[in-house]
């Protein structure tokens, strides 16, 4: 009987934790996603110019993200990069959903089953060549470009936006593409 109570207690605790995590905001305080977002214009290949490092991209250069439509209309993302420590390429395939209105740049991405994380487009030029993407918190930030480089004035504008939101931009990893 005591084991049953412990198991039920553990299940309840896990369920409550998942509910709390999923109800938390998936965008940093003060950040605003872009409006009038056009999904079809965002599709295609993006080069990662800079990021705040985290476990899944540790030791990666030549990192890219390719967005495409699945047959059912959902969005697929394939992230690729070269691990310069292990000397091999790695790739991870995920799915992207809108976190609300499809005309807003507030998305969520999953690489692990039912678990999604915030993917918030907070900067995007009118030609969809450069993007600033915030994760669910100030631990996640990406500067993306359709090319392997980004003009200095775009970098500076995106860095100012990030700093104004509270990001520590001195911790950015500037990705090499060679």
UniProtKB/TrEMBL annotation:
CDD domains assigned: lipocalin_Blc-like
Chain ranges passing through the membrane: none
UniProt-annotated location(s): Cell outer membrane; Membrane
Keywords recorded for this protein, A-Z: Cell outer membrane, Lipid-binding, Lipoprotein, Membrane, Palmitate, Signal
Lipidation (S-diacylglycerol cysteine): 24
Alphabetized PROSITE patterns for the sequence: LIPOCALIN (PS00213)
Signal peptide: 1-26
Residues of the Lipocalin/cytosolic fatty-acid binding domain: 40-176
Presence of keyword Protein biosynthesis: no
GO BP, sorted A to Z: response to stress
Pfam families assigned: Lipocalin_2
Lipidation (N-palmitoyl cysteine): 24
Its membrane topology: Lipid-anchor
Main location: membrane
GO molecular function (one): lipid binding
Domain of life: Bacteria
CC annotations in GO: cell outer membrane
Stated role: Involved in the storage or transport of lipids necessary for membrane maintenance under stressful conditions. Displays a binding preference for lysophospholipids.
Oligomeric form and interacting partners: Homodimer.
Annotated family: Belongs to the calycin superfamily. Lipocalin family.
Protein's name in the database: Outer membrane lipoprotein Blc
Protein species of origin: Flavobacterium petrolei
Organism lineage: Bacteria, Pseudomonadati, Bacteroidota, Flavobacteriia, Flavobacteriales
